[in-house]
Amino acid sequence: MTPDVTDVVVVGNFELLVSFADGARRRFSMRPYLEYPAYQALKEPGKFKLAHVLNGTVAWSDDIDISPDTLYLEKQTTGNDAQPCARQLP
Length: 90
Description:
Blueprint: E1 5-12, E2 15-20, E3 25-29, E4 52-54, E5 57-61, E6 64-66, H1 68-73, E7 76-77
Antiparallel strand pairs: 1-2, 2-3, 3-7, 4-5, 5-6
């Protein structure tokens, strides 16, 4: 089971630093997802910076969020995480 998201910080151009309940931290790029209809609104000026934790995941509004599984498994690890840095795009 994927741990809940406990904190999120916008750290770059459509990038997030996500902290999880198990202590892991992941840097995650939303750029590949912005072409999907569900996430296109995040391209609006200022909208992406509204990222926050809601119900154990990252959300931007009541109708825009992303699965914690996606954030945890498709990531770039930080220096605080012992797993190798890898990200493969679909």
